[in-house]
Amino acid sequence: MKFCANLAFMFTESSSILERYALAKDAGFRAVESGFPLGYSLEQVKQAKEMAGIEQVLINLKTGDVTKGELGVTAVPGKENEFKDNLKSTIDYARALGAQKIHIMAGKLENVSSENWTTYENNLKYAASVLKNENILGVIEPINQHSVPKYFLSDFQKAVDIIKRINSDNLKLQLDIFHLQHICGDLSYNIKNLMPYVGHVQIAQVPNRNEPNTPGEINYKYILEHLQRCGYNDWIGLEYKPAGNSKEGLKWVKEYGYTL
């Protein structure tokens, strides 16, 4: 198992994402994933990452101001050019950081129509063709409606159907076990059946989104072993909110028999 720190959720003891690169390295991580670093230049982020001597696995698509609930325009008709600009900006950052994966966020919508689904699929088809030239993997993630009400993509079957129709090696599923449990449950079966489409995995306990060994619905010792049995051997993002200090909360890694 290879674990990477999610800088949007971990090491928030520091308000600056730039400082979190060094904090992640200090805690023993070899790699991180992050949201798009709004407010920081490509040069600033690249320097922070390189000074920390840490790998960047994944970066989220530029979405707008997440504090205002802006989570992308991929499914919004009439904003195709904005989507393309956001993709281009994100690719620039991904290149500079050496990130091989981009999470293409769908956006939040009040009302969903067939036009939204058509726009979403067309934009993903465009992204897959662009990312193929960049040798970068695009991933899409169903997000549960409890955590992010009105998020456009909250259905794993619909996500897989789109991935199958586009049929590109550069578009896969981001499988967040936290969201899978909220949306579907039946984890052993669903993980096994979704695995052929998976390009990235994230974890957090349900319902409080804390460390895997905190009280909750998921037996992560079993689930991590199950992921391995199902053939997953890539990075796993720790997209959880530490119950206390981020570094101290990592004791579960050793407890479960792994290392960072």
Structural notes for this entry:
The chain has helices at residues 17-26, 42-52, 80-97, 114-134, 156-166, 177-183, 187-194, 220-229, 251-255; strands spanning 2-6, 31-34, 55-60, 101-103, 137-140, 171-176, 198-203, 235-238. It has 260 residues and is of the alpha/beta class. The protein has a single domain, classed as TIM Barrel, CATH 3.20.20.150. It has an eight-stranded parallel beta barrel with strand order 1-2-3-4-5-6-7-8, surrounded by five helices. Helix 8 (220-229) links the parallel strand 7 (198-203) and strand 8 (235-238). Helix 1 (17-26) packs parallel to helix 2 (42-52) and helix 2 (42-52) runs parallel beside helix 3 (80-97). It is globular. The chain starts with a strand and ends in a 5-residue tail after the last helix.
Give the strand order, joined by hyphens, for the main sheet. Answer: 1-2-3-4-5-6-7-8
Number of discrete helical segments: 9
How much of the sequence lies in strands comes to: 5-15%
| Secondary structural class | alpha/beta
Elements, N to C (H/E):
EHEHEHEHEHEHHEHEH
* Mean model confidence by pLDDT: 96
CATH topology: TIM Barrel
Low-confidence stretches: none
Relevant CATH superfamily: Divalent-metal-dependent TIM barrel enzymes
